[in-house]
Amino acid sequence: MSQRKLSRQQRWRVEKVQAERVKRAEKREQTDQRQLAEGEYGPEQLGRVVAHFGRNMEVEGTDGVRHLCHLRANLDTLVTGDRVSWREASDGSGVVEARLERYSTLERPDARGRLKSVAANIDRIMIVFAVEPEPHPFLIDRYLVAAEATGIAPALVLNKMDLLDEHHALHALASRYRTLGYPVIGASTRRDGGLEDLIAAMDDTTAVFVGQSGVGKSSLIDALLPDESLAVGELSVDSRKGRHTTTTARLYHFSQGSGALIDSPGIREFGLGHLDEQQVENGFIEFRPYLGHCRFRDCRHRLEPGCAILTAAENGEILPERLESFRRIVHELNAPPR
Ligand SMILES: Nc1nc2c(ncn2[C@@H]2O[C@H](COP(=O)(O)OP(=O)(O)OP(=O)(O)O)[C@@H](O)[C@H]2O)c(=O)[nH]1
Ligand SMILES: [Zn+2]
After folding, report:
1. Where are the alpha helices (DSSP H) in the chain?
2. Which of 128, 131, 219, 220, when mutated, tests ligand 1's pocket best, judged by the most ligand atoms within 8 Å of its CB?
3. Is 69 annotated as a binding residue?
4. CB of 216 shorter than 6 A to ligand 1
5. 162 is in an annotated binding site
6. pLDDT digits (tens, 9 = 90+) for 126-183
7. Domains of the chain
8. Cβ(192) to ligand 1 under 6 A?
9. How far apart are CA 88 and CA 97, in angstroms?
10. Per-residue pLDDT tens for 130-143?
11. What whole-number distance in Å separates Cα of residue 219 and Cα of residue 43?
């Protein structure tokens, strides 16, 4: 082995030449990769995230076919319901290149109490209540306020119509909400054609179903979706903190009509989280024309003189039941349950 001692200058020159070689090689590789990518991936196309697991997701193309995709490194995390631009690889998998702007998001607090998006581009929050368990108007109002705070239009679904008799007080309740401007859609999973109105009302929309336990959300969803679609949704995910099971929100298409549903246990619990006082005020849609017209700017609509909300209630423009719900929700905010 010949040992040649290089002068400092020689060594410097060799290093420089080598560095340039490395640089050229890197550049060539990048170009190769780009060419490879151009060749390997098809053209950009639109799609929708129908399930996601960290940086991997299922994307449904405009042809309705689902592809396992990964996310380009520089993109933020996506959520179910996101509309994306993606490209298909020769093996049927794909890469998501960009996210289209979201027109709505559903958020839930994470373990640390920070709000996190769980689903995007939802058109309707379907608040399910039922003939039994007997619905409490306060709870319906609570869901309505939470829905209004998202900017996503709520609708009410009165389920178990097969148990409803003609004189039932629920007719009055339904008409109260219709008068406020909310659609109230009757449904029954126990009656032929009992879901027709619901299917029609949800055409061309992506919805979520929320509502208290026992109102029949699972039964409705089972009846609306094609048989094979329910056994999915759970996936074990490795994270640095260890292995745990997460349940992702999933988008399903109805077997009839053109409606779709995004569902997960977390989404079903929507509406029970924290709201601030201003969201509560604004969540009572019939209060809106009066807000800002009270004598005191920080009026809380209790006993204050010159309160526009109280005056409207005295004049019959705001129902006493709704004012009562408002007070109860505000009270809960200030004295949260233990
Ligand atoms: N009579 C009648 N019963 C129904 C109807 N839909 C659901 N049920 C019954 O109501 C009960 C509750 O239904 P689920 O679908 O489990 O209700 P859920 O809202 O999913 O309840 P959680 O899973 O606790 O959130 C079950 O015993 C159903 O069989 C209906 O349209 N009519
Ligand atoms: Zn007031």
Report:
1. 8-40, 137-150, 170-180, 196-201, 217-224, 265-268, 277-283, 308-314, 320-334
2. 219
3. no
4. yes
5. yes
6. 999 999 999 999 999 999 999 999 999 999 999 999 999 877 889 999 999 999 999 9
7. 45-99 (2.40.50.140), 105-268 (3.40.50.300), 277-334 (1.10.40.50)
8. no
9. 11
10. 999 999 999 999 99
11. 41
Determine the pLDDT at residue 2: 43
Predicted pLDDT of residue 231: 43
Q: 110: exposed, middle or buried (C-beta count within 10 Å: 0-12, 13-18, 19+)?
A: exposed
**ipTM score:** 0.96
Ligand 1, closest atom to CA 219?
A: 15
Q: For ligand 1, is residue 162 a contact (CB within 6 Å)?
A: yes
213 is in an annotated binding site: yes
Q: Is 161 annotated as a binding residue?
A: yes
241: confidence class by pLDDT, cuts 50, 70, 90:
very low
Confidence of residue 10 (pLDDT cuts 50, 70, 90): low
Cα of 303 from ligand 2 centre, angstroms = 8
Q: pLDDT value at position 257?
A: 92
